[in-house]
# Entry
Amino acid sequence: MASNSQAEAVEIYGVKWSKWSAALSRRFDIIVAVILFLAVVSAFHLHFMLLAGDWDFWVDWKDRQFWVTLSPIVAIIFPGALHYVFWDKLRLPIGATFAVVCLIFGEWMNRKFGFHDWSYFPYSLIAPATFIPGAIVLDVALLLTGSMLATALTGAIAFAFLFYPANWAWLAAYHLPVEVMGSLVSVADYIGYAFTRTATPEYLRFIERGTLRTFGGHSAWVASAFSGFICMLMYIVWWYIGAFLGRVVTVPNKLKTMMGLKKDPKPAAVSI
Amino acid sequence: MQIVKNDSIRGFSMLGFLTRYMARLRIVVGLGVLLALSGQVFAHGERNQEPFLRMRTAHFYDMKWSTTAVAVNEDIVVTGKFRLFQDWPGNIPKPERVFLGNGTPGPVLARTESWINGVPAIQSGKLELDRDYEFKTVLKGRIPGRHHVHPMLNVEGAGPLLGPGNWLTVSGKWEDFKLPVTTVDGTKIDNLETYGVAQTIKVHAVWYVIALVYMLWWLRKPLLMTRFAAMEAGNEDLLVTRGDRLWGAAFLVGTLVVVVMWANWAEATYPRTVPLQGGEMLVDPLPLEKNPVKITVVRATYDVPGRSMKMNLSFTNNGDKPVQVGEFMTAGLRFVNHSVPAAMANVHPDFPKDLIPPSGLKVENNAPIAPGETRTMMVEATDAAWEVERLTSLLNDPDNRVGGLLFFFDSEGNRIIANVMGPIVPVFGKS
# Structure
C-alpha cells in the first residue's frame, strides 16, 4: 500500500511529489506552523514588552507623541525579519500579519492572566494596541511589488501611518475630557490614577509635553511621519538580519535529501 | 586513562542513587513541604527599604483612617501630614518631582481623590525639604480581602517612600464594584473599570478575524517544503498567481477603507477629546510652625543585642512655656512617653498597633524643661520593633545617621515638633 502511494506522483507548484511525500509535507506544515506560532508569540511578545513596555501596557501612556513614534518602530522588527524568510524562501506574503497576530495573541494572554486575573488591573487600563492593519498593508505591498526596497518605501511607512487611526477607533473614548478635583484630565488619565500602580507613579510616564505645535497641533501625524521614516530603515535592516539568521540556522540540504529531494547547489541570493 | 567504576559497569543501583543524593532529596522535599504549607504573602517589601530611606526622608504623622473596614464601593478617607526631613540623605535625589501614591498589593482599592495642602494631587509636583504638608486620600473598596495599605510618596530618582501601613478590610463582591464619572461634555460613564472595553475587544476581534482570513488564503495551500522546493526549482511564478495578487489588493483597499471609516466614526462619536495631561502640581508647604526647642545630639548609640536606641540629647527651651518630651517617631515607629498624657492622647485608635512599641519612650529626668533652661537628657527607645522592622540594618548604611521627629507637649497639651538628627554609633554590649 505504502509503496503504491509512494509510486503515485502529484505535481505541486510544478514539482513532482509522491503522494506519500506530499501528505507527509502537509503534516510537516501543520507541526511547523504550530511550533512557529508559539515561538513567535513568546519571542515577539517578550521583545515588545521589553522595548515598548509601559506604552503598550497602560491606557494613560498612549499619547500622541512617544507612543505613536515608538510602537511601530519596535513592532516592525519581527515583520521585517520574517518577511525575508517567508518571501525569499517560500514566496509567502504573510510574514508581517503572522508576526502581529502572534504578538497580539501573546499580549491578550498576558493581559488576561498576568495583569487582570493575577494583579486585578481592569481591562480599560491595560488594553494593548493593534498593528494588524499596518501589517496587512505591509504584506500586500511585498506581494504586489515583490521588492524589499519598494515595500520599505510604501508598506513600512504605511505600517507607521496606519497605527494611530487604526487604534483611535477604540482609544478615542478614553480621551474624553473629565473634571476631577477641579482639574481637567482625560478619562485615560483618571483610569490610570484611580487604579493604582504602586511602582509606576505618574511622573514616570513619558508622554507628550506639548512641543509638536508646528502642524497646527496635530502631534500624532508628525510623530507618525517620523515613525514611518524610521520604520522604513528598520524594515530594511531587519530584512537583512533575517537573511543573515536564515543562512545561519537553516540546514536545507540535509533536510531535503532526507525527503528525497535534490541538494541545493548554493545558498539562495537575497533579492531586492 | 579513564577509570571505570565497577558499579557503573554492573548497572544502575537505585539504592546507591538514593544514598548518594539523600541530602539533596531532603532539601527538595523540605522546600516542597514549606511551599505547600506557606500561606499567601501579604507584605510588599516595606521593611526591605534601607533604614536611611525610612528614617531620614518622609516622616508621616497625625495619620487617621476614617475606617478600616468597608464594603465594595465604600470610601476610606486617609488623612495625615508628612515632613520631608531636613537631613535628607545625600545619596538620593531631592524631592524635585513627587507623586502622592499609596502602596497597595495591586489596585485593590480605587483612588478617587488625593490632595496635598488642598491642591489636587492627580499629578506630580515639587516639594520642599524641612517643610510639612497635609494630605488626604480617598480610597474606594474594590477587591474583597484584607489589604495592607500605606500612604506613599514616590520621589523621582529615589523611589517609593512609605508611610505607616494599616490593614484595611474590604467585604463584598468585586463584580459589584462601580466607579462612575460624568465627562465634561455630559457623557455618563457607569463604571471606569469596564468603560470602553467592549469597543476595544470589538476592534481587536474584527482585525484579528480579518488577519486570519487573509492568512487562511495562503495557509490552505501546501506551504513549507512544497513552496521551498518550487522556489529551488525556479517555479516562483507558480507560487504567486494573479488571483493571489487580486486577493491581496482587495485586502489592501479594504484595510484602508476600514481604518479610515472607523477612525472617522470615532471622531464623529467623540468630537471633543483631549490629549493626556502631563502638567505639574504646584503646592506651597504648610506655614512654618514656631519651634522654640533647640536639640543637639550629644551622642547616639544603638545597642545591637539589646535592641535599644539611646540618644543623649541637649535641649534648650527658648519658648515661654515648660515642655516635656512626649514621643520619638522614626520610620513609622512611634515610641510614646507613657508618662505624658497629651502624648498618649495623640495616638489615634486606628493607628496600627504593631508600629507603637509597648515599652514606649524612656526619658531620663522627665520633668518639664522650663523656659530658658538647657538640659541634657538620655532618651531611650527600646523594643524588638527595631529588629522586626529591619531597622537594625542601619549599621550597613554608608551614612550612619539617625533621624526622626521629637514631639514635645506643654502643660496645655500644645504640641511642638522638632527634628532630631545626628550620627549613631553601634554598640555590642554595654554602651
The radius of gyration of chain B is 32 Å. Chain B touches chain A through 99 residues (CB under 8 Å). Chain B has four domains: 6-37, 46-185, 197-269, 293-427.
